[in-house]
């Protein structure tokens, strides 16, 4: 019925509207929204439309539009074998099929297809061709062409391949010359690292110096030349230091027994000999180029206790020639450490106490010179000339003094010309100052034009007081000893009529400040107290005494050498009248001993003779006796003990004198 | 100045030669070898085979001894080395670039 269809249409429309405007069940504004749409159309009321009351019209009917198939069953129940019961199937196929058309596909070459084509044949020839346009070109051609041609299967895959020409492989190689290789191995020790650091530091310092110094072209040239020469001869000269060490080692081996004696030997038989002592010969020093010369001076070096200087010359007036300054070390007795040949014979030398490389030398020709051992040259760094106040007679003694107020080194010299001169080393010059002129008291000679000139005495030795700086003693050829002061240049403080012949040596005692000793060619050795005009002790040695020396370790021990080749050692605290040791030390009897010196630390003495030999001797224990004090009062009181010892001796002597006087 | 320096170096060379002669002339000295820093002998008074042998062996010993001394205190350095044996004594004095070996029989 139309109303039913209208209703259905309405329902469809409604469902369409609800589709458009959501599936909300509560949405009741369908009519309202639909109103807008339908306003353009005029409504025609059909005749059989239901008449509804207003209330019924306003009644809202909710329509829900879903995508479900309304014809699909909603309550299919299936038997589940698993649960053995009927279960409703929740998901139902909602597919609604509206239209199905089954197609029919024929292969074009099949019989049926041919029959159909034949039917359509003449009418649709064009269509067939058009339709065949879609077919493969091959098949069309094959259809048009002969059937005898091979029909390629459009489904078969035809592989097409072609092979290219492979070029023959060629191997091409080239070999380079291998880089030169060398095996390198090194160790990285702490000291190697330290060495590298030192080198870098030195380089840095050099660079700093170069930056500071202004480069001079001449210096550079000079340096270049030096470098060249060095490289030529560096192979041998670099070995110099090492060769020296080796030489000493070899000597140590050769003279091993002497070295052992020097260090350790103590003559045990001294215990049985009451007072006497002996001298043990140790090394003998000789230099073959000095054979004809006599030892004229000996001096130990204060800083290097094994080094001593030997001055060589001649005492013979007629045989004056060249001289030599030679240094020996106890470590090498076969060859000197330093050799300085001189034109004139040396008569005296002195090594500076604090600067072990400065040596003052006095010559027979009256010159004085100063050598610097550090310098490479063989020439002295200072030498006095006729212009600069050199002595006119042989210089018999030189002695270094303390540096003066300007910190210049200076030394004194005494000579037969009667002058005591002070020489100061000022920069490059040797400046002299006459300190005192030794004139014979009262003796005057007639000079030209009736002028009376004082006769000069000839100074032959001097010595400076150890503590009192200005006080010194001068011994003369006439046999007198003058006590002088540096301050008074014309007068003596005191004169002692010491000897009958020239005073060969005068020496202050190392400990006692008042005592000095003198020796002379008149065979005597005398000990004095400088406050008393007569000697305290006098010793007759039966031969001309060449030299005398106090020992550095005792105030009462001294030694003297005589021309008969003997060394006489005295210890006044043991024996006041005789020597405790009288020993010949040279082989040939004709050899005269000229000088003697005690070593400042070791118990040895060196003795020089007139054949250029220097012999070293070790003092036996008896000669080195130190006074036995009460227990507990031993060595700490060294110098004072010595002074007391001497004082005791002197007091014994003075008392009888006082009582006599 | 350069002439003086040249003379000094010549003099030094003569001095060193003389020192070596003296050492050779000492009692009981059998031979002297001077070896450079690489262990190659540059001067010797012994025959070739002995020289090479001594140089090679002693070089190693000196390096070891020096290394020992310096490892203990890098500011220290080896001064000399004596190897005393029944028959003789080998004395080695090393330097920065060279070392000197002397073989001596002290009891001769």
What's the alpha carbon Rg of chain A, rounded to whole Å? Answer: 68 Å
The total count of strands of chain A amounts to 32
Task: Figure out the total of helices of chain B.
Answer: 2
Shape descriptor of chain B reads globular
* Average pLDDT over all residues of chain B: 86
Structural class of chain B: alpha+beta
Question: What oligomeric arrangement do these chains adopt?
Answer: heterodimer
Work out the radius of gyration of chain B. 16 Å
- For the largest interface in this structure, which chains are involved and how many residues does each contribute? A-B, 36 and 45 residues
* Strand-residue proportion of chain B: 25-35%
Taking strands numbered 1, 2, ... along the chain, how are they ordered across the largest sheet of chain B?
2-1-5-4-3
Structural class of chain A: alpha+beta
Region (Disordered) (chain A): 110-162
Subunit structure (chain A): Consists of at least two heavy chains and a number of intermediate and light chains. Interacts with BICD2. Interacts with CFAP45 and CFAP52. Interacts with CFAP53.
Biased composition (Basic and acidic residues) (chain A): 133-150
WD repeats (chain A): 496-529
Structure description:
By secondary structure, chain A is an alpha+beta fold. In chain A, a hairpin with a 6-residue loop joins strand 18 (459-464) and strand 19 (471-476). Chain A is rod-shaped. Chain B is built from 2 helices and 5 strands; from the N terminus they run αββαβββ. In chain B, strands 2-1-5-4-3 form a 5-stranded antiparallel β-sheet, sandwiched between helices. The termini of chain B are far apart. The A-B interface holds A 187, 189-191, 193-195, 222, 225-226, 229-230, 233, 235-247, 249-251, 253-254, 256, 334-335, 376-377 and B 1-2, 5-6, 8-10, 12-13, 15-17, 19-20, 22-23, 26-29, 32, 34, 36, 42, 67, 70-71, 74-75, 79-80, 82, 89, 91, 93-100, 102, 104, 106. Chain B: One of its GO terms (cellular component) is cytoplasmic dynein complex. Chain B: InterPro entries: DYNLRB1/2 (IPR016561), Roadblock/LAMTOR2_dom (IPR004942). Chain B: Belongs to the GAMAD family. Chain B: This is Dynein light chain roadblock.
């Amino acid at each position: 019925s139309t109303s039913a269809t209208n209703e259905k249409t309405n329902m469809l429309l409604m469902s369409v509207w609800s589709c458009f405007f959501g599936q909300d069940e509560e949405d009741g504004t369908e009519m309202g929204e639909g109103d807008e749409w339908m306003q353009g159309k005029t409504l025609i009321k059909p005749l059989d439309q239901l008449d509804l009351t207003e209330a019924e019209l306003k009644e809202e009917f909710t329509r829900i539009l879903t995508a479900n198939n309304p014809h699909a069953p909603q309550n299919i129940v299936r038997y589940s074998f698993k649960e053995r019961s009927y279960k409703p199937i929740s998901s139902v196929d909602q597919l609604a099929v509206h239209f199905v058309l089954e197609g029919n596909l024929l292969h074009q070459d099949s019989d049926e297809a041919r029959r159909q084509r034949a039917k359509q044949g003449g009418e649709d020839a064009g269509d067939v061709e058009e339709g065949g346009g879609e077919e493969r070109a091959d098949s069309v051609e094959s259809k048009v062409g002969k059937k005898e041609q091979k029909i390629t299967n459009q489904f078969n895959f035809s592989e097409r391949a072609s092979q290219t020409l492979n070029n023959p492989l060629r191997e091409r190689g080239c070999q380079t010359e291998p880089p030169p290789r060398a095996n390198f191995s090194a160790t990285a020790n702490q000291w190697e690292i330290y060495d590298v650091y030192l080198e870098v530091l030195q380089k840095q310092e050099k660079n700093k110096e170069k930056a500071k110094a202004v480069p001079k072209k001449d210096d550079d040239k000079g340096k270049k030349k030096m470098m060249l020469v060095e490289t030529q001869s560096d192979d041998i000269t670099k070995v110099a230091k090492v060769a020296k060490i080796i030489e000493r080692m070899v000597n140590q081996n050769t003279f091993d027994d002497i070295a052992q004696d020097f260090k350790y030997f103590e003559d045990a038989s001294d215990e049985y000999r009451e007072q006497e002592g002996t001298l043990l010969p140790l090394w003998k020093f000789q230099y073959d180029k000095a054979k004809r010369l006599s030892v004229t001076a000996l001096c130990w070096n204060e800083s290097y206790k094994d080094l001593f200087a030997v001055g060589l010359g001649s005492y013979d007036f007629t045989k004056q020639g060249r001289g030599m300054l030679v240094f020996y070390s106890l470590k090498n007795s076969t060859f000197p450490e330093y050799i300085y040949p001189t034109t004139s014979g040396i008569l005296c030398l002195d090594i500076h106490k604090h600067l072990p490389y400065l040596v003052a030398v006095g010559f027979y020709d009256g010159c004085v010179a100063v050598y610097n051992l550090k310098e490479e040259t063989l020439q002295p760094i200072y030498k006095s000339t006729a212009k600069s106040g050199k002595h006119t007679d042989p210089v018999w003694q030189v002695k270094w003094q303390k540096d003066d107020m300007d910190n210049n080194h200076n030394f004194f010299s005494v000579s037969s010309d009667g002058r005591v001169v002070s020489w100061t080393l000022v920069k490059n010059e040797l400046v002299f100052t006459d300190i005192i002129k030794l004139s014979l008291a009262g003796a005057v000679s007639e000079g030209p034009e009736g002028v009376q000139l004082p006769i000069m005495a000839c100074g032959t030795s001097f010595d400076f007081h150890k503590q009192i700086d200005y006080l010194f003693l001068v011994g003369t050829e006439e046999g007198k000893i003058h006590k002088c002061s540096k301050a008074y240049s014309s007068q003596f403080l005191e004169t002692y009529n010491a000897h009958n012949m020239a005073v060969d040596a005068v020496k202050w005692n190392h400990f006692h400040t008042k005592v000095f000793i003198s020796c002379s060619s008149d065979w005597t050795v005398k000990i004095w107290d400088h406050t008393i005009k007569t000697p305290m002790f006098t010793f007759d040695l039966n031969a001309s005494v060449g030299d005398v020396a106090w020992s550095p370790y005792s105030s009462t021990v001294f030694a003297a050498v005589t021309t008969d080749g003997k060394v006489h050692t005295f210890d006044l605290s043991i024996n006041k009248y005789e020597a405790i040791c009288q020993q010949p030390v040279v082989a040939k009897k004709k050899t005269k001993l000229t000088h003697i010196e005690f070593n400042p630390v070791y118990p040895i003495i060196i003795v020089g003779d007139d054949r250029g030999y220097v012999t070293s001797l070790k003092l036996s224990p008896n000669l080195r006796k130190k006074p036995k004090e009460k227990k507990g009062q031993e060595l700490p009181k060294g110098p004072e003990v010595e002074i007391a010892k001497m004082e005791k001796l002197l007091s014994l002597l003075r008392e009888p004198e006082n009582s006599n006087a | 100045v350069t002439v003086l320096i040249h003379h000094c170096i010549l003099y030094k060379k003569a001095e060193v030669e003389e020192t070596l002669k003296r050492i050779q002339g000492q009692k009981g000295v059998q031979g002297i070898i001077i070896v450079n820093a690489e262990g190659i002998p540059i001067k010797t008074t012994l025959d070739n085979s002995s020289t090479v042998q001594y140089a090679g062996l002693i070089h190693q010993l000196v390096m070891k001894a020096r290394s020992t001394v310096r490892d203990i205190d890098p500011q220290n350095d080896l001064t000399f080395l004596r190897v005393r044996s029944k028959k003789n004594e080998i004395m080695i004095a090393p330097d920065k670039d060279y070392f000197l070996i002397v073989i001596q029989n002290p009891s001769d």
